[in-house]
């Protein structure tokens, strides 16, 4: 998830309200636009302007033209979502809101400091975050519905590439392809038993009514949901790994705690909060057994021995990945790493885990790294890996031969933008729009705002 700073320092906001755009009336609650029956207030525009400056986002044109138009377009999409009864998954919204709020807590040090920073109660900030994320999801869903039939044929891509001016052909930075073998160090059984004993103790204390589950989650859980008492938000079964879902969705008594559940992330106990149809909200406590340095070194030596056997042609890297690697995402794909951002096997260096990027930066294609320890960010645990650099593609201007998928993505994005632009301009024609005096002297992106 890309987590960005979404709320502004009030002092900066107040200062900008006083000094920016002196040609506008200095009234905070001035109605700048009306779209349908929805007003757009000057205060909304000012706050978004501060937000964009804080994030370092470039604004092409007058912000007092660009920003209200963006808000107006969002209102058109949200109105369409109501007509089509499009709703965002509440569990997904709540989880992303929690992740972003937790980022603020981590950056600033505590909930109290977050409240001081924004001069708002934490609960109010979280509600605003939920609303914003919910709207983002709904708008994306409407746009996806409008553009779902866009499909590029090879001929479409060729024509699109041929139509691009020379200075519009994108430059593709250095990219690499790599294979990986990953193993998990052996965890001592006594460490596992200690984790289980702690979880059994927590469950007993909750079941006896001695302490709320949420309090124990705040104190001891190693999951990001700890700050919210382990609460995960409403979601369906598919959001969870099967081992977790199979136990969680069979819970019926909110006053009882599940048995201990083992997943790839560690060991959990779960408490049901509420069920709504095929969705449910749970709390959980996650504990991850710790690996000691001795076991990490044992795993590293094991992979280094495997490296020597691969270099001696006793095994191919692909066979070793299939039979030795414990990385479920790559072992059945000859160890080939896939870029989650693009769906291809190519990575820009900045898209790789930093430990891997450092190792392969100076490697040649076909070369194997030494075995090394890295943090599996998704599971928050140390693993030992061996990496092979498969290929290195120097930075270059995109060509059809080497970058067909990139050009296909560009064509589809361009076609989708055209569809959405036409939709917005047609929607403007059938929607009541009133732009206040002093706000209409603009060159807008979309035609039809000023009747």
Concise overview:
The chain is built from 14 helices and twelve strands. It has helices at 10-19, 42-55, 63-83, 90-108, 111-118, 122-146, 154-163, 189-207, 213-220, 242-248, 293-311, 317-324, 354-360, 404-429; strands spanning 31-35, 38-41, 171-172, 175-183, 261-263, 266-276, 279-287, 347-348, 372-376, 381-393, 396-397, 433-435. Helix 1 (10-19) crosses helix 2 (42-55), helix 3 (63-83) crosses helix 6 and helix 7 (154-163) crosses helix 14 (404-429).
Molecular structure report:
The chain has 451 residues and is an alpha+beta fold. 45% of the residues lie in helices and 15% in strands. The protein contains 14 helices and twelve strands. The chain has helices at residues 10-19, 42-55, 63-83, 90-108, 111-118, 122-146, 154-163, 189-207, 213-220, 242-248, 293-311, 317-324, 354-360, 404-429; strands at residues 31-35, 38-41, 171-172, 175-183, 261-263, 266-276, 279-287, 347-348, 372-376, 381-393, 396-397, 433-435. The strands form four sheets. Strands 8-4-10-9 form a four-stranded antiparallel beta sheet. A hairpin with a 2-residue loop joins strand 5 (261-263) and strand 6. Helix 4 packs across helix 6 (122-146). It is globular. Residues 1-27 have low confidence and may be disordered.
């Amino acid at each position: 998830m890309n987590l960005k700073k979404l709320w502004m320092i009030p002092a900066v906001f107040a200062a900008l309200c006083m000094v920016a755009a002196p040609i506008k009336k200095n009234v905070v609650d001035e109605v700048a636009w009306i779209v349908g029956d929805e007003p757009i207030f000057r205060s909304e525009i000012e706050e978004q302007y501060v937000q964009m400056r804080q994030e370092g986002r470039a604004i092409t044109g007058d912000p007092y033209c660009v920003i209200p138009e963006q808000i107006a377009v969002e209102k058109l999409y949200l109105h369409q979502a109501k007509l089509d009864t499009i709703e965002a998954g509440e569990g997904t919204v709540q989880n992303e809101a929690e992740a972003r709020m937790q980022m603020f807590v981590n950056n600033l040090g505590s909930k109290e400091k977050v409240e001081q920073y924004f001069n708002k109660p934490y609960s109010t900030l979280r509600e605003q975050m939920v609303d914003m994320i919910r709207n983002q999801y709904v708008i994306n869903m409407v746009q996806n519905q409008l553009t779902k039939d866009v499909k590029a044929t090879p001929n479409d891509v060729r024509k699109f590439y041929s139509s691009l001016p020379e200075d519009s052909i994108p430059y593709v930075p250095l990219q690499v392809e790599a294979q990986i073998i990953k193993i998990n160090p052996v965890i001592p059984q006594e460490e596992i038993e200690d984790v289980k004993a702690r979880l059994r103790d927590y469950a007993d204390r909750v079941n006896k009514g001695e302490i709320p589950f949420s309090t124990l989650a705040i104190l001891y859980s190693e999951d990001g949901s700890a700050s919210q008492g382990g609460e995960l938000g409403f979601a369906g079964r598919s959001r969870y790994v099967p081992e977790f879902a199979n136990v969680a969705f069979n819970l019926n008594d909110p006053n009882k705690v599940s048995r201990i559940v083992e997943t790839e992330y560690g060991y959990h106990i779960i408490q049901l909060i509420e069920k709504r149809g095929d969705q449910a909200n749970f709390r959980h406590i996650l504990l991850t057994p710790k690996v000691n340095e001795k076991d990490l070194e044992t795993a590293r030596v094991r992979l280094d021995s495997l490296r020597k056997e691969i270099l001696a042609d006793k095994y191919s890297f692909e066979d070793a990945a299939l039979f030795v690697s414990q990385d479920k995402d790559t072992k059945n794909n000859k160890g080939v790493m896939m870029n989650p951002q693009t769906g291809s096997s190519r990575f820009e260096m900045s898209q790789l885990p930093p430990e891997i990027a450092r190792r392969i930066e100076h490697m040649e294609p076909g070369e194997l790294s030494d075995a090394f320890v890295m943090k599996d960010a998704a599971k928050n645990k140390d693993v030992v890996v061996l990496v092979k650099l498969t290929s290195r593609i120097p930075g270059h201007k995109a060509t059809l031969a080497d970058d067909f998928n990139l050009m296909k993505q560009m064509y589809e994005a361009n076609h989708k933008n055209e569809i959405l632009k036409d939709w917005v301009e047609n929607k403007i024609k059938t929607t009541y729009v009133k732009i206040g005096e002093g706000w209409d002297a603009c060159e807008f992106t979309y035609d039809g705002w000023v009747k």
